Amino acid sequence: MDAHRLVVVRHAKSAWPGGVPDVERPLNPRGRRDAPALGRWLRDRVGQLDAVLCSPATRTRQTWRLAAAELPDAPAPVVDDRVYAATAEELLDVVREHPGDLRSLLLVGHNPGVSDLVQALTGEYVEMKTSAVAVLGVGCEWAELDLGRATLVEHATPRGT
């Protein structure tokens, strides 16, 4: 039985407007369609979330806002600057800081960090396309989470229509 569940999400598809810094890039039309589909997938397959950790980038915050609108009782995101452009090791350090009474934690971030994190924790490679989600079972306290200490429960790339 897994003590905790880590839900790793890559932001939805973003635009590349000229002259806009990377951190401020917004979602493009496809991303704005896919993010609600991600929310519906989370509602149907994951259920209650205790906390959400989000990169400060515009595209990650927009992804969560659109996904959260599809969820009952969606937690407000904690925006953490360390999640932006983070490596798997940096993301793991941030996750480890969470209290043990949080059973489910969702992280909205960027590649390659989120893909690398899933692979480092589970030993399995999954392609984290935009809007992809990986649900990991964690059989230890957050503070004890380390490489190879999680299992891949489910992986999907929900798409809007």
Which features characterize this protein?
single chain; 161 residues; alpha/beta; Rossmann fold; six-stranded mixed β-sheet; 4 helices; 6 strands; 29% helix; globular
Task: Describe, in plain words, how this protein is organized in 3D.
The chain is α/β, with parallel strands linked by helices and 161 residues long. The protein has one domain (4-11, 24-156): Rossmann fold. It is 29% helix and 20% strand. The chain is built from 4 helices and 6 strands, in the order βαβαβαβαββ. The chain has helices spanning 29-45, 58-68, 88-96, 113-122, and strands at 4-10, 51-54, 77-79, 104-109, 133-138, 150-156. A 6-stranded mixed β-sheet has the order 3-2-4-1-5-6, with helices on both faces. Strand 2 (51-54), helix 2 (58-68) and strand 3 (77-79) form a beta-alpha-beta unit. Helix 1 crosses helix 2 (58-68) and helix 3 crosses helix 4 (113-122). The longest helix has 17 residues, at 29-45.
